[in-house]
Amino acid sequence: MGNLIPFPVLTQRANLKLLREHGPAAESVLFGIAGFLEDKRINQTASPDQDYWRRLWEHWWQLRSQFEHLILRDDLWHFGMTRPNNHPHRRLGALAELVHRWKEFRMLSPRLDSVGKWIRRLSHPFWDYHFSLASGPATRPVHLLGDGRVNDILANVIQPILVAGDHADWDFYMKVRAESDNRRLTVVCKRLFGETDHCRKHLRFLYQQQGLLQIFEDFCLADTTDCAACRFPELVETFKTAGQW
After folding, report:
1. Diameter of the chain measured on Cα atoms
2. Would you kindly state where each structural domain of the chain is located, as residue ranges?
3. How far apart (Å, rounded) are the C-alpha atoms in residues 22 and 18?
4. pLDDT grade, residue 244 (50/70/90)?
5. What is the rounded distance in angstroms from the CA atom of residue 206 to the CA atom of residue 151?
6. What values do phi and psi take at 205, rounded to 5?
7. DSSP string covering the chain, please?
8. pLDDT of residue 152
């Protein structure tokens, strides 16, 4: 939640077309425009992997003047209260690997299970063992993208693309188990169901969570009266009366 601004801005400034045009330098461009290669704390200390750090700078020092006006300010990024697997450095590492294998991704069959399996197999020689550019190596490899993140991608990116292309994979989508919980789900469940135990059956599958999160976005965020003037119950009743529920 703390990096909702810099990530979208970064994807606008370092879009897929730009990254693909720079081929082997794409990863350097991505980390450079993000501002992470400008981090004085990392530059002034020994990197845990000098070879990887050197490869990033090998391209960036030649391109920096071209993209200097696009570099994000370091105060836009938030690193506190972030799970190691969700560290912005690591998330960019996963994005860089996806860009590197984009042609392969484009050739996948339009099925959620196929795409999910492919994403789960993504691997990177540095990010399989590190959580940030400055962190020491992990004792064993860590999935570049965890199941929760993969499910988010399937639900919010891949499935909408399949729907738009008339390849909706609803059978598989309805079977995807939910892997994680968050504060927004806690809020909307408490408001809709009251008791926490009662709402557990509505959180088992990804499609259930996505529906509850949509309710949160459309109604909970827009209502400052703590449910007193919420229009959701009225809307539900309208659908029931019209036979659309």
Report:
1. 67
2. 6-170, 183-241
3. 7
4. low
5. 7
6. -115, 155
7. -TTTTHHHHHHHHT-HHHHHHTGGGHHHHHHHHHTGGG-HHHHTS--S-HHHHHHHHHHHHHHHHHHGGGPPPGGG---TT--GGG-HHHHHHHHHHHHHTHHHHHTS-S-HHHHHHHHHT---TTTTT-SSTTSPPPSS---SS-HHHHHHHIIIIIHHHHHHTT---HHHHTTPBP----HHHHHHHHHHHSSHHHHGGGSSBHHHHHHHHHHIIIIITT--STTTT-SHHHHHHHHHHTT--
8. 86
Question: Model-level pTM?
Answer: 0.82
Alpha-carbon distance of 111 to 126, in angstroms, equals: 29
CA distance 107 to 109: 7
> pLDDT (tens digit, 9 = 90+) per residue, 108-129?
998 999 999 999 999 999 999 9
Which tens digits make up the pLDDT trace of 134-156? Answer: 888 899 999 999 888 898 899 88
177 has which bridge partners?
205
**Structure tokens, 7:** 């990530």
